[in-house]
Amino acid sequence: MTTSTQTPAAGMSPLPAAGTTRPLVIGLDLSLTSTGIAGVDWADAIKPRQKGHMRLSWIRCEIADRIRLADLVVVEGPSYKHGHEAGAHERAGLWWLVTHDLWRRDLPYAVCPPAQRAMYATGKGNAGKGEVRDGVRTWFGVECDGAARYDMADAVSMAALGAHWLGYPVADLPDTHTRALNGVQWPEVIPAVAA
Q1: What is the DSSP secondary-structure string of 59-103?
Q2: For the whole model, what pTM was predicted?
Q3: 53 Cβ neighbours under 8 A, 6+ residues apart
Q4: Are the C-beta atoms of 43 and 153 separated by less than 8 Å?
Q5: pLDDT in tens, the chain (195 residues)
Q6: Ramachandran class of 146: left when φ > 0, alpha when ψ lies in -120 to 50, beta otherwise
Q7: Contact 108, 63 (CB under 8 A)
Q8: Burial class of residue 21 in the structure, from the number of CB atoms within 10 Å of its CB (0-12 exposed, 13-18 middle, 19+ buried)
Q9: How many CB atoms lie within 10 A of CB 166?
Q10: CA–CA separation, 96 and 94 (whole Å)
């Protein structure tokens, strides 16, 4: 697993008090070529070499293995403006496979529109990929480098958003950022780890 480093950043909140543990929230930026997967202080990418059904099965298994202990998973919702692009049909299939697995395992998950994950990291729903990456570094202290840097940054932003919703914010963000909480489809049942 390739992990990024966490460095102190402006706005970061202190770690939970002694005797408490921050819940494990995983963010998923699903992709056929480079799925971003992250917690609030680490990021990685899942990069398949297969095509078709083998690719979907491999990504699904990799995700299932890495989320099994999660208290909450935040999955990026579909981007309808990309529905005409090559691979959109297969990408939609991946989204349904992964969310069905979460449902079947009874793991709470949230669906986060792309604009909300951008807003949480930058304060702007229409922020570009580079701006989200910079926001993740500034606010959450996670460096996302390499070819999958944008996928990983998106996943970190969603993990931090989920932690905030549970009552464990990673940073003291302004209202321009936290208003993103209102646009996410949160699970109907709040996980027991919520503060």
Answers
A1: HHHHHHHHHTT-SEEEEEPP-GGGTTSTTHHHHHHHHHHHHHHHH
A2: 0.86
A3: none
A4: yes
A5: 333 333 333 444 444 444 468 899 999 999 999 999 999 999 999 999 999 999 999 999 999 999 999 999 999 998 655 555 656 788 889 999 999 999 999 999 999 999 999 999 999 999 999 999 999 999 999 999 999 999 999 999 999 999 999 999 999 999 999 999 999 999 988 877 776
A6: left
A7: no
A8: exposed
A9: 20
A10: 5
Tokens 């996670």 locate to 142
Amino acid at residue number 107: L
- Give yes or no for a contact between 97 and 60, defined as CB atoms under 8 angstroms apart: yes
Residue with tokens 């489809």: 185
Residue 61 structure tokens: 């298994």
> Cα separation of 100 and 60, whole Å?
10
Q: Which residue reads 């697995």 in tokens? A: 101
